[in-house]
């Protein structure tokens, strides 16, 4: 099939796009602060991948976004590694399109990405509106002023926020081209990208927790940021990334039947859930379950739609032969509910040890064999009563042994659990006489294991806790006879896959265990740490604060033109600064040069309350310092002020264990030298498997004061110079700003409000249409039957739910992922005549 798009004009346009993208990528790489040679090699590698894997790589490259943000090392915020990646990928893929005619296309009815005429017009309007907002932002900032290291108040911030949509529009033709040649490339590429993004964000979060507050420290008010440097002034970058990616992993886990991929997805989901919990984001806690419910509903619809033709063909087959949905597992629900009830009571008594012991017992309950339910209810209860008596006898012997043996409480609980599982796994090998008493034997082992949790509590905290733990564990033990009276899902009702095979039974058991572990983790966070509880308790107070901030944001629109077209891209921070009272004014920085050619940093302090967390800092990553650390420099100030100099183990926010000293400067506007000793650096590095990053910071500790700093030198006992670009000859290279806890001036804290302030009602309308039309196509329209629709719809819904309480679109990497997902939703469709799959699989 020949297409007009394969003609000379298309190849010529592709060649031009490849040249422009490659030239722009090399221009950026030539100014990369962390190594120009490495950046150029990276561009060549990205272009090579785009050329070789042209159908997959333009989508797969999205998976790298959570890991390629090195602004705290480079000092770049207007431009970043994302730009190098996108431009290099586009250069290679467009060059491949220009080098040869379009690859053989699949039939029209099998194409999964297609932009209609109205869709193309809408995207053109979207791009033009963006360019208009960019122009207005530049004008509001005083006109076009290029700079590699400008901040949030300057003109280049408008360019920074224009890139996400432009990059998504740049790659969209490549996504369409790849899916036209190979429809499965879209499935492979998008799912792989989202899984990789979730893995990168989650692993970074795990390292951060281990290195700084501690893996299971849920009491400190430390919120995980991962490698999203954009959270240096607050925001919800990690939250938005998790909302976009978790649905793809969670829904894939429910569909996967192969053991190894299932295990990998289970681990990925565990990491993602941990990152979500430690973000302590109420938006994520709302977004993930609600969006997952939507994804499950769409998935269930697809499964039913796929099974109808099979049921119609099998005229003699009853409806039960093609089950609709997943059967209700009542024993599992009983286990989850019982664990939640009794673990909450047990945690104050036995802590994590007691809760973990109870959790390890629960799989025995929800995996009860069907033959234990044979006989009358009275016979089952008599068997349990006999077993309970035997379990009590074993517990009576276990307590004195626990006191006598080293680590006896833990050893005897492990023995009881091992016996219970041995009876379960070897029950078919028992003699006929023992098989007749299988119900009583398993009940005995169950009561012994559950009672062993009380022994663990008593061994750990004393005999008094043994007695206190007995009561909730007695209730847990009684779950066994309740489970015996519940009907088990018949084996014939196990879910049927799209290839006609029953789903493996082990999946149900593993998913049940995973649900228990998740519940245990949530209970541990709630009961073992005060921070999450305080976050939940303060939700209403924080919401009132957000409402006040939103009203202030609306007050920034002071003309009809502002309401219609907005203040311009990237102008929220500057508008907030100048439109409010002095107490709204934050600290700021500029990199300047005087008439003599001297480069210097102009740094100011905020006029709000300046506590430790509210200081506006300019920082730099440094190598590990050893011994006595000293700081020297040259500065000038118009009036007396005080600086704060710090060397801290710090990732992005929330420093602790710092070397801190004040620097007092005299006014008069003359350059003056200073030198101080910060103290001895000891134990700042952390463990080898989770090393702590170290950071030097300087800030103005006097409200509203301004200082010019021309030189900074930081040395340790070895005489090493720990700072790069200490004379600011390279402007802001390697320097980075942050505000640990004062964040409102940088964010509208609502995605729709952010769009309204910066792009007006026009931009808000276009964003609404993009979102509503995309969601309508995924849930009710032409894309509903596509395998990606459930996860994609859930991801977009989750992102918008997080966006109710944060801006999100002011984070380019996350906004790029959002626009990519939205444009795919706008162009996605299910191939005509192809039924949606009932199960998983790429």
Automatic annotation (TrEMBL):
Keyword tRNA-binding applies: no
TM segment ranges: 53-73, 121-138, 227-254, 261-277, 283-301, 322-344, 350-369, 381-402, 408-425, 437-463, 469-489, 510-529, 760-780, 787-805, 811-832
This protein's record includes keyword Transmembrane: yes
Keywords from the named record: Membrane, Transmembrane, Transmembrane helix
Name the record gives this protein: Uncharacterized protein
